[in-house]
Specification:
By secondary structure, this protein is mostly helical. It is about 45% helix and about 5% strand. Bound molecules: protoporphyrin IX containing FE and 2-acetamido-2-deoxy-beta-D-glucopyranose (NAG) (6 copies).
Length: about 325
């Protein structure tokens, strides 16, 4: 049996698992063929745009993939992360502390939406765009593909004060991470696999300053960090520059299992990354991901399908612009 047929088998397994997962987690009954008659070009338009965007700026693949995660964890996968405030007294999710000056790619999503509105006006939801974009961005930088289930209905509400408590935080320990993921129906293994999203992208230096400069308030470097790595970080991220950037793993432009290798060699960046190894399940998975990267690449897609099936708490309708709610025509 050659490699390609193994891939085909994996794909079929993926499709079967995905149906099971989607049936279990989605009240809205998402399907892979949702736009087949209403907008058959939808998926290819998204892929073409994502390819062009990532060709122009490879770092955006990470930002685009992350939007789906931040969307789904708050009010379900409903495009709420994309909404702009219209009332200065009501800040939307993107302005919350955990998102502001951190999420990127909004303009690119708007571009994709515009293209889809030209091709098929009033058809494709913003939440579905985020799901397709996350898959295409991941694949574009080395990840494995997965079938994207579609048919999400966009929400109308987006509230900054719902973000804290819904999204995990960089200082969370293993128990807290498991609890936060459990709130949206994801288990510990899903959490460990989805953390592999940190195989791509970048992080502000300030997000790990405590570990570098003031571990447990003691004015020392976290002794669990590889000392050479810590010295390198101090050069890249001097204390005066919290808004500088560091790569989330050693190969931040490529989606692979290096993130887990970094964890196992004491080169994790965020406390929440390092926390994975505080539990035997995390250690076991990190070793498996390094020994058998294909399994991680496959399972990441499966976990993204599950994450993408988190039901919307308040489905509203379709939007002509992803940053605004207006009634449909
Ligand atoms: C497990 C809990 C998680 C925590 C605590 C966490 C936290 C963070 C933090 C603090 C950053 C850097 C933000 C900044 O400095 O501006 C970041 C970046 C990122 N996260 Fe997570 N994250 C988690 C899970 C995930 C998951 C599940 C995914 C996707 C499946 C993901 C994808 C990303 C990506 C791609 C970036 C880089 C974004 C960019 O380059 O613009 N993260 N995350
Ligand atoms: C919506 O907000 C984003 C930043 O969060 C901004 O880049 C974008 O221009 C805004 N969109 C519109 C149409 O005002
Ligand atoms: C978000 O960041 C911008 C730019 O730094 C800042 O002007 C704005 O006040 C921040 N919003 C909130 C709600 O903190
Ligand atoms: C979120 O809320 C908790 C509890 O109120 C608080 O300790 C934490 O600092 C908040 N995080 C952010 C990013 O606002
Ligand atoms: C994990 O964090 C939670 C909340 O931040 C805390 O209550 C708990 O004691 C911590 N657990 C461990 C094992 O450190
Ligand atoms: C913290 O440690 C650094 C380097 O070891 C030292 O230069 C500095 O004076 C210390 N600061 C405090 C407040 O102890
Ligand atoms: C901080 C850092 O190294 N970021 C890089 C991550 O990877 C992208 C894509 O290769 C680069 O554009 C970033 O500069």
């Amino acid at each position: 049996m050659d490699f390609r047929s193994i891939e085909v088998q994996r794909w079929m397994l993926a499709a079967i698992l995905a149906v099971v997962v989607a049936a279990k987690f989605s009240e809205a009954q998402l399907t892979t063929d949702f736009y087949d008659s209403s907008c058959p070009q939808a998926a290819s338009i998204v892929k073409q745009k994502v390819d062009a965007i990532v060709d122009a700026d490879r770092g955006l693949a990470a930002a685009l993939m992350r939007l789906h995660f931040h969307d789904c964890f708050v009010r379900g996968c409903d495009g709420s992360v994309l909404l702009n405030s219209t009332d200065p007294n009501i800040l939307t999710e993107k302005s919350a502390l955990l998102n502001n000056n951190s999420l990127r790619g909004f303009e690119q999503i708007d571009e994709i939406k515009m293209e889809l509105e030209c091709a098929c006006p009033g058809v494709v939801s913003c939440a579905d765009i985020l799901a397709l974009v996350a898959r295409d961005a991941t694949v574009k930088v080395g990840g494995w593909s997965w079938p994207v289930f579609l048919g999400r209905i966009d929400g109308a509400g987006s509230f900054a004060d719902e973000v804290n408590g819904s999204l995990p935080e960089r200082t969370d320990n293993f128990t807290k991470l498991v609890q936060t993921f459990a709130k949206v129906g994801l288990d510990a293994k899903d959490m460990i696999i989805l953390s592999g999203g940190h195989s791509i992208g970048q992080v502000h230096c300030g997000a790990f300053f405590e570990r570098l400069y003031n571990f447990q308030g003691q004015n020392i470097t976290d002794p669990s960090m590889d000392p050479e790595f810590a010295e390198m970080l101090k050069v890249q991220c001097p204390q005066t520059q919290p808004f500088g950037f560091m790569a989330l793993d050693a190969t931040n432009g490529t989606f692979d299992s290096t993130y887990y290798l970094d964890l196992l060699t004491n080169k994790g960046l965020l406390e929440s990354d390092v926390a994975l190894l505080s539990d035997p399940l995390g250690v076991e998975y990190a070793i498996k991901a390094v020994q058998d990267p294909d399994t991680f690449l496959f399972e990441f897609g499966m976990a993204m399908i599950k994450m993408g099936s988190i039901p919307s708490v308040d489905p509203y309708g379709w939007r002509s612009h992803c940053a605004f709610t207006e009634p449909k025509y």
